[in-house]
Write a structure and sequence with these properties.
Structural class: alpha+beta
CATH architecture of the largest domain: 2-Layer Sandwich
CATH class of the largest domain: Alpha Beta
Organism: Paraburkholderia panacisoli
Shape: globular
Number of helices: 6
Largest sheet: 7 strands, antiparallel
CATH topology of the largest domain: Alpha-D-Glucose-1,6-Bisphosphate, Chain A, domain 4
Radius of gyration: 26 Å
Number of domains: 2
Helix content: 40-55%
Number of strands: 7
Protein name: Carbon monoxide dehydrogenase subunit G
InterPro entries: CO_DH_gsu, START-like_dom_sf
CATH superfamily of the largest domain: START domain
Mean pLDDT: 81
Strand content: 35-45%
Length: 198
Protein backbone atom coordinates (compact mmCIF):
# COMPACT_ATOMS: atom_id res chain seq x y z
CA UNK A 1 0.00 0.00 0.00
CA UNK A 2 1.26 3.48 -0.89
CA UNK A 3 -0.43 6.71 0.09
CA UNK A 4 0.55 10.33 -0.61
CA UNK A 5 -1.56 13.26 0.55
CA UNK A 6 -1.27 16.96 1.35
CA UNK A 7 -3.33 18.78 3.97
CA UNK A 8 -3.38 22.46 4.94
CA UNK A 9 -3.64 22.95 8.71
CA UNK A 10 -4.91 26.19 10.30
CA UNK A 11 -1.89 26.71 12.57
CA UNK A 12 1.70 28.00 12.15
CA UNK A 13 4.46 25.54 11.32
CA UNK A 14 6.16 25.54 14.73
CA UNK A 15 2.87 24.89 16.50
CA UNK A 16 2.04 22.10 14.04
CA UNK A 17 5.39 20.48 14.74
CA UNK A 18 4.86 20.66 18.50
CA UNK A 19 1.36 19.17 18.17
CA UNK A 20 2.63 16.30 16.02
CA UNK A 21 5.04 15.46 18.84
CA UNK A 22 2.42 15.74 21.61
CA UNK A 23 1.19 12.25 22.53
CA UNK A 24 -2.03 13.55 24.13
CA UNK A 25 -3.03 15.41 20.97
CA UNK A 26 -2.12 12.42 18.79
CA UNK A 27 -4.10 10.04 21.00
CA UNK A 28 -7.16 12.29 20.71
CA UNK A 29 -6.81 12.61 16.93
CA UNK A 30 -5.94 9.08 15.78
CA UNK A 31 -9.21 7.17 15.20
CA UNK A 32 -9.48 4.14 17.48
CA UNK A 33 -6.32 5.04 19.41
CA UNK A 34 -6.35 3.75 22.98
CA UNK A 35 -2.87 4.72 24.12
CA UNK A 36 0.47 6.18 23.06
CA UNK A 37 3.31 5.75 25.54
CA UNK A 38 6.95 6.80 25.25
CA UNK A 39 9.32 3.88 24.72
CA UNK A 40 12.78 5.42 24.68
CA UNK A 41 13.95 8.44 22.71
CA UNK A 42 11.63 9.35 19.83
CA UNK A 43 9.84 5.99 20.09
CA UNK A 44 6.32 5.14 21.19
CA UNK A 45 4.20 2.11 21.98
CA UNK A 46 0.76 2.41 20.38
CA UNK A 47 -2.49 0.48 20.94
CA UNK A 48 -5.47 1.05 18.68
CA UNK A 49 -8.57 -0.62 17.30
CA UNK A 50 -9.28 -0.53 13.59
CA UNK A 51 -11.68 -2.02 11.08
CA UNK A 52 -10.55 -2.75 7.54
CA UNK A 53 -13.48 -4.09 5.56
CA UNK A 54 -14.79 -7.15 7.42
CA UNK A 55 -11.66 -7.46 9.58
CA UNK A 56 -11.79 -5.74 12.96
CA UNK A 57 -8.86 -5.98 15.32
CA UNK A 58 -6.94 -4.41 18.16
CA UNK A 59 -3.39 -3.62 17.14
CA UNK A 60 -0.39 -3.16 19.37
CA UNK A 61 2.73 -1.75 17.84
CA UNK A 62 5.75 0.49 17.99
CA UNK A 63 6.45 3.74 16.20
CA UNK A 64 9.94 5.23 15.85
CA UNK A 65 10.75 8.74 14.60
CA UNK A 66 13.93 8.98 12.54
CA UNK A 67 15.76 11.55 10.36
CA UNK A 68 14.26 14.35 12.44
CA UNK A 69 14.66 17.84 10.96
CA UNK A 70 12.66 20.03 13.35
CA UNK A 71 10.33 21.75 12.54
CA UNK A 72 10.36 20.63 8.90
CA UNK A 73 10.25 16.85 8.58
CA UNK A 74 10.70 13.39 10.03
CA UNK A 75 10.31 9.75 9.11
CA UNK A 76 8.01 7.39 10.98
CA UNK A 77 8.87 3.68 11.04
CA UNK A 78 6.03 1.55 12.40
CA UNK A 79 5.04 -2.04 12.95
CA UNK A 80 1.99 -3.54 14.62
CA UNK A 81 0.44 -6.91 15.41
CA UNK A 82 -3.30 -7.49 15.30
CA UNK A 83 -3.44 -11.11 16.46
CA UNK A 84 -5.45 -13.29 14.07
CA UNK A 85 -6.13 -10.24 11.87
CA UNK A 86 -2.49 -10.11 10.87
CA UNK A 87 0.21 -7.47 10.96
CA UNK A 88 1.17 -4.17 9.41
CA UNK A 89 4.54 -2.52 9.03
CA UNK A 90 5.90 0.33 7.03
CA UNK A 91 7.16 3.88 7.06
CA UNK A 92 6.06 7.41 6.29
CA UNK A 93 7.83 10.64 5.44
CA UNK A 94 6.11 13.70 6.93
CA UNK A 95 7.04 17.19 5.67
CA UNK A 96 5.86 20.58 6.91
CA UNK A 97 5.98 23.82 4.97
CA UNK A 98 4.75 27.24 6.11
CA UNK A 99 1.71 28.43 4.17
CA UNK A 100 1.69 32.10 5.15
CA UNK A 101 2.02 33.11 8.82
CA UNK A 102 -0.94 31.20 10.22
CA UNK A 103 -1.14 27.94 8.26
CA UNK A 104 1.01 24.93 7.45
CA UNK A 105 1.04 22.58 4.49
CA UNK A 106 1.63 19.00 5.63
CA UNK A 107 2.58 16.42 3.02
CA UNK A 108 3.15 12.76 3.77
CA UNK A 109 4.09 9.71 1.76
CA UNK A 110 3.44 6.38 3.44
CA UNK A 111 4.05 2.81 2.38
CA UNK A 112 3.00 -0.28 4.29
CA UNK A 113 2.91 -4.03 4.06
CA UNK A 114 0.20 -6.16 5.61
CA UNK A 115 -0.05 -9.87 6.32
CA UNK A 116 -2.55 -12.40 7.66
CA UNK A 117 -6.28 -11.79 7.12
CA UNK A 118 -5.56 -8.18 6.21
CA UNK A 119 -3.56 -9.30 3.19
CA UNK A 120 -6.49 -11.40 1.97
CA UNK A 121 -9.09 -8.63 1.78
CA UNK A 122 -7.48 -6.75 -1.09
CA UNK A 123 -5.47 -3.59 -1.55
CA UNK A 124 -8.45 -1.43 -2.57
CA UNK A 125 -10.19 -1.98 0.77
CA UNK A 126 -6.95 -1.41 2.66
CA UNK A 127 -6.20 1.81 0.73
CA UNK A 128 -9.76 3.04 1.29
CA UNK A 129 -9.57 2.34 5.02
CA UNK A 130 -6.17 4.05 5.28
CA UNK A 131 -7.45 7.16 3.50
CA UNK A 132 -10.53 7.26 5.71
CA UNK A 133 -8.45 6.99 8.89
CA UNK A 134 -6.02 9.65 7.64
CA UNK A 135 -8.89 11.97 6.68
CA UNK A 136 -10.50 11.59 10.10
CA UNK A 137 -7.12 12.22 11.79
CA UNK A 138 -6.60 15.53 9.98
CA UNK A 139 -10.20 16.57 10.58
CA UNK A 140 -9.75 16.03 14.34
CA UNK A 141 -6.26 17.54 14.30
CA UNK A 142 -7.53 20.75 12.66
CA UNK A 143 -10.47 20.88 15.10
CA UNK A 144 -8.02 20.85 18.04
CA UNK A 145 -6.85 24.29 16.91
CA UNK A 146 -10.10 25.80 15.67
CA UNK A 147 -9.75 28.47 18.40
CA UNK A 148 -12.16 31.11 19.59
CA UNK A 149 -13.07 32.18 16.06
CA UNK A 150 -15.24 29.11 15.58
CA UNK A 151 -16.89 29.60 18.97
CA UNK A 152 -17.87 33.13 18.02
CA UNK A 153 -19.21 31.89 14.69
CA UNK A 154 -21.24 29.23 16.48
CA UNK A 155 -22.65 31.82 18.87
CA UNK A 156 -23.51 34.11 15.99
CA UNK A 157 -25.25 31.17 14.36
CA UNK A 158 -27.26 30.63 17.54
CA UNK A 159 -28.32 34.29 17.56
CA UNK A 160 -29.60 34.08 13.99
CA UNK A 161 -31.41 30.78 14.56
CA UNK A 162 -34.64 32.35 15.99
CA UNK A 163 -34.92 34.72 13.03
CA UNK A 164 -34.41 31.82 10.61
CA UNK A 165 -36.90 29.70 12.55
CA UNK A 166 -39.46 32.51 12.38
CA UNK A 167 -39.35 32.54 8.57
CA UNK A 168 -41.14 29.23 8.04
CA UNK A 169 -43.81 30.38 10.53
CA UNK A 170 -44.36 33.52 8.47
CA UNK A 171 -44.64 31.39 5.34
CA UNK A 172 -47.11 29.03 7.01
CA UNK A 173 -49.18 32.07 8.13
CA UNK A 174 -49.33 33.23 4.52
CA UNK A 175 -50.36 29.74 3.50
CA UNK A 176 -53.01 29.75 6.24
CA UNK A 177 -54.72 32.84 4.82
CA UNK A 178 -55.12 31.03 1.52
CA UNK A 179 -56.68 27.95 3.14
CA UNK A 180 -60.33 27.33 4.02
CA UNK A 181 -61.79 29.13 7.07
CA UNK A 182 -62.04 25.99 9.23
CA UNK A 183 -58.39 25.05 8.71
CA UNK A 184 -57.31 28.64 9.26
CA UNK A 185 -59.22 28.83 12.58
CA UNK A 186 -57.72 25.53 13.71
CA UNK A 187 -54.19 26.70 12.86
CA UNK A 188 -54.81 30.06 14.54
CA UNK A 189 -55.86 28.33 17.77
CA UNK A 190 -52.75 26.12 17.81
CA UNK A 191 -50.56 29.17 17.03
CA UNK A 192 -52.19 31.13 19.91
CA UNK A 193 -51.73 28.17 22.26
CA UNK A 194 -48.07 27.96 21.28
CA UNK A 195 -47.56 31.69 21.99
CA UNK A 196 -49.28 31.48 25.38
CA UNK A 197 -47.05 28.53 26.38
CA UNK A 198 -43.86 30.34 25.44
Amino acid sequence: MELTETHTLPIPQQRTWEALNDTEILRACIPGCESIDADGENAYLVALSAAVGPVKARFKGRMQLTDIDAPNAYNIVFEGQGGAAGFAKGNARVMLEADGDAATKLTYTASAQVGGKLAQIGSRLIDGAARKIAGEFFKRFGAQFAGDGDTETAQAGDDTAPAEAAQPDAESNDATSAESGADATKRKRSWTAWISKS
